[in-house]
Automatic annotation (TrEMBL), chains A, B, C:
Protein's name in the database: Aromatic ring-hydroxylating dioxygenase subunit alpha
Domain Rieske: 7-107
Top-level taxon of origin: Bacteria
Molecular function via GO: 2 iron, 2 sulfur cluster binding; dioxygenase activity; metal ion binding
InterPro entries xrefs: Cholesterol_7-desaturase, Rieske_2Fe-2S, Rieske_2Fe-2S_sf, VanA_C_cat
Keywords: 2Fe-2S, Dioxygenase, Iron, Iron-sulfur, Metal-binding, Oxidoreductase
Entries under SUPFAM superfamilies matching the protein: Bet v1-like (SSF55961), ISP domain (SSF50022)
């Protein structure tokens, strides 16, 4: 249950730096590689000669050369050449619209005629030199919507991430969810509290005291199909909170790109963008390491949840106020899928 | 194919000492934990909020607190509280009758209205200070009845456990099987033989000579649903065998609690109770280690047997005299299951 | 999709040297062992007593004794004895025609009445002392015909085995395929080229220069059901190529016996027979090691190809001139299978 006529993060440039990459996205097995002039390309991971996985091959002069018998595949899914063969009548494979932007490779797994690169959302933090970004990738055996739910309800931090970013006050603070066009926003503000360990580290990293009360905020933005960007931060208490002068706060954006692999698994691109000390590579590395551990804590919870839901398919889950972010996000996804599947969809 | 309106061993107290335990029993996914005043509790391993596995949570003040968003589950399967929520209308989950007795946690996976703690069989060796017990747990990928068959026909010792408790005389001694109420008893007596390695060790452990002939016995008792207690021992030859004065014999009870997990797998709680040198902890440990190795030898045989039976479902197996114990035990189980499934069962 | 009324390589003698071997062949689970006087035997790997795997047992006096309760199985699939039992009425299991020849154990998984040992093809290199043989066994998760395709189209060497036996000239040389009776022969000759690394090693091993041009040949012979023997070699250029005097060439036979396990997996017995320096055991070992690495390179390609074909069952594959060897081999196999399945087959 996922829309296909939309852009998903497929991989990062380092994953195709040394050769092609085979990755399944929305049920499509795709080989990603750098075509002519280094431009990224994506074709079905299936050699029309004998069905070998093209991603096991090599890139030669911008063509993806099958590692079995040397068929050379072009970026458009048409066969370019094969040793000793006339390839004019050879069947091709599907190619997929693909874009490299903001430090990610984006793929459109649905109808290529509908692909429009301008629909990739602008990511200011990815292009503004005052921001730094660090992140990673996890493969998770649960459907992608469970991860969206997870990120749109941060009360789980208190239970899953108690030693880093969780704190009792998250549960106690009221949460508000609203819809703005195709976005779902759920936010929570906590005033005059002590910062949890992760944020104390960030305060120190930004030369601020970590033993005084702070105001803390979490603003989760879902944008379809599966991006959750979360503005998070703490400011010294009483300085204006979210709106405080940069001298008194530490803030960043938790970046989550959630890409379906199959109906029951997904690729989770996680990271953090920050606009303080953007050139401090050691800080980027230490935040990345800490975040990797925190997000790893979610995996067992989510994969066991997936199994439970498969075991009890008839059970209705609760939809509480804290779940509103996930519930609204699912509604938008359901509409997108319904629209795609309508008879006159295109 | 297992009765559910009956008591099964679910786990041992050490398994819930540091937190909840998730375990599937008779197809039911169950979270075990210690409720108020340390009393053991068992509820479905499914959080009614979003389906997370409750067993990944923590026990707080006798409640099982979900590790995802903090829903607190009571011992009775009713939701006690959740941060920021009124839980009065929340659906609950099933709770299971559960008892702690004889050093084990017992669960009744069927109709709770029928559960009666007095039906847990008395285990004298577990309460009498003149006895010591040591044991362990194996997870085995075969249906539980294959393990019952295994334990009710000890001729397999000669082939599977040749280096410890097996000896040719087991095959040669006549075996007798009888039914006493709901018990199946199969027994074998061997006179004037040399003890195999395991029993020579036990003789020495009890300050008896290990190089003289002995009389050996094996009395297997099946009690439904899946307990096999085996009286085993050796006495110096001619001193009365099973009835010999304790000074001349070494005897113990092999304890086997066999709990179905699914139709094709089970939990095997194995151990040995002895009434000699009960306070010798080193002896307990060494017997436990030896027994663990011996019972590990059965696993490959049983798991391959399970696969063979699945591959050839139409083949009829033989039912020889040596198989009578298993055959009779299966009849009792079949009756129990038929009774449960009858229209007017309850 | 495999013929069963035919001889397949089942195992090598070393695999049954220390006890029975359980191996699935053409869907049949078979226990191989040495019966009376060391003669090889093959029976269903299923004990008629309780379904245990006979291959977990021991061979005693030419009988296969079940490792569970001691039933003794004869080479003909009839029960010989069991401790304390009269076995006259015991059901037996299937036995399979089996032959030991040419350093391999051959099995006939189909109708035993049709088995004829004279139909095992003569292998001159296996009986002639001027030849040496070294080889190994891989288990591969793809249907056996993909391996036949692989070996009947050696253009893959250029891509899969680029660092050992592959070279661009293979692609460029014309290939010719013909059928001779029940054999498919596909051959390729390359003249005045430089030898690739594997053959340079072989030239040096045979005291020939490795830095001068050579003529190279590859003659692949498929004989049903699944034997591919490939004559390969290089001769100093201009000395007659394949027909050159032995002083000027290095040649050998790549030996491939491909035995179906299930519809989607097979056992691959690979090796090389050579008629130079046949008594040089170190050379045999080094060729074997090199060949093992080369053939290991095919495994990932083939297993991924199998998965791709399962994912896209409706796609037609190309049948190019280079594929003719595999295509013709498949036709012969299809005829054999059709003949077996015809109503009046036997």
């Amino acid at each position: 249950m996922f829309p296909k006529n939309t852009w998903y993060v497929a991989c990062t440039p380092d994953e195709i730096a040394d050769g092609p990459l085979g990755r399944q996205i929305c049920g499509e097995k795709i080989a990603f590689f750098r075509g002519p002039e280094g431009k990224v390309a994506a074709v079905e991971d299936f050699c029309p000669h004998r069905g070998a996985a093209l991603s096991l091959g090599k890139v030669v002069d911008g063509k993806l050369v099958c590692g079995y018998h040397g068929l050379a595949m072009g970026c458009n899914g048409k066969v370019v050449s094969m040793p000793g063969q006339r390839v004019g009548g050879f069947p091709g494979v599907r190619s997929f619209p693909v874009e490299e932007r903001y430090g990610f490779i984006w793929v459109w797994p649905g109808d290529p005629a509908l692909a429009d690169a301008s629909k990739i959302h602008h990511l200011e933090w990815a292009v503004n030199p005052e921001w730094a970004y660090g992140g990673g990738l996890y493969h998770i055996n649960c459907e992608y919507r469970l991860m969206i739910d997870n990120l749109m309800d941060l009360t789980h931090e208190t239970y899953v991430h108690g030693s880093s970013i969780g704190q009792k006050e998250i549960d106690e603070a009221p949460v508000a969810t609203r819809i703005e066009g195709e976005e779902v926003i759920t936010e929570r503000f906590m005033e005059n509290i002590m910062a949890p360990p992760f944020w104390r580290l960030a305060l120190r990293g930004n030369d601020l005291p970590d033993d005084v009360p702070v105001d803390r905020w979490q603003i989760c933005r879902f944008t379809a199909p599966s991006h959750v960007l979360i503005e998070v931060g703490v400011a010294l208490a009483g300085k204006g909170g979210y709106h405080a002068d940069p001298r008194f706060k530490v803030s960043s954006i938790v970046v989550d790109f959630i890409t379906p692999e199959t109906e029951t698994s997904h690729w989770y691109f996680w990271g953090m963008a920050r606009n303080f000390k953007p050139h401090d590579a050691a800080l980027t590395a230490s935040i990345r390491e800490g975040q990797g551990k925190i997000f790893g804590e979610d995996m067992e919870v989510l994969e066991r949840q997936q199994k439970n839901l498969e075991s009890y398919p008839e059970r209705k889950l609760l939809m509480l106020n804290i779940d509103a972010g996930g519930v609204q996000s699912r509604r938008i996804l359901a509409k997108m899928v319904a629209k795609e599947q309508a008879p006159n969809a295109a």
